[in-house]
Amino acid sequence: MIQAKASNAVLDTGHLLLKIDTLLRQPVSSPTWDEVLTYFIHNGLPARAAACFFDHYETKGWKTATIPPVINWQTAAKNWVINATEARAHARMSAPVSY
């Protein structure tokens, strides 16, 4: 009897994992250009960054590099800006010094 309960728990866990997997694969509503632009401006970020971000994810169908859909586009936007800022800083530090 204990073994039957344990196997039911495993089945329930498997069912839950299947549900989670299914939910993660469902399309997430993608933001409009106006939503992205408003978000960037509201956070003091340039419109050019908003355009690059929007175009990048729009062409990819709002999926990440590893194919899952973008679940929270605001978080993706924050990461986009952080990565772009770090890349610019690295480029400045790596630039050859002219004398």
Describe the protein in words:
The protein has 99 residues and is mostly helical. It has a domain at 28-94. The chain is 70% helix and 0% strand. The chain has four helices and no strands. It has helices at residues 2-25, 33-42, 47-59, 73-94. Helix 2 (33-42) packs antiparallel against helix 3 (47-59).
Draw up the topology in text.
Blueprint: H1 2-25, H2 33-42, H3 47-59, H4 73-94
* Contiguous helical run count: 4
The biggest sheet, with number of strands, parallel, antiparallel or mixed sense and barrel status, is: none
Tell me roughly what share of residues is in helical segments. Answer: 55-70%
Radius of gyration: 21 Å
N-to-C CA distance: 82 Å
Count every beta strand, where a strand is a DSSP E run of 2 or more residues.
0
List unreliable stretches of 5+ residues.
1-11
Structural shape: extended
Mean pLDDT: 77
Which range does the strand content fall in? under 5%
Alpha-beta content class:
mainly alpha
- H-E string: HHHH
Key descriptive features of the protein:
99 residues, mainly alpha, 4 helices, 70% helix, disordered N terminus
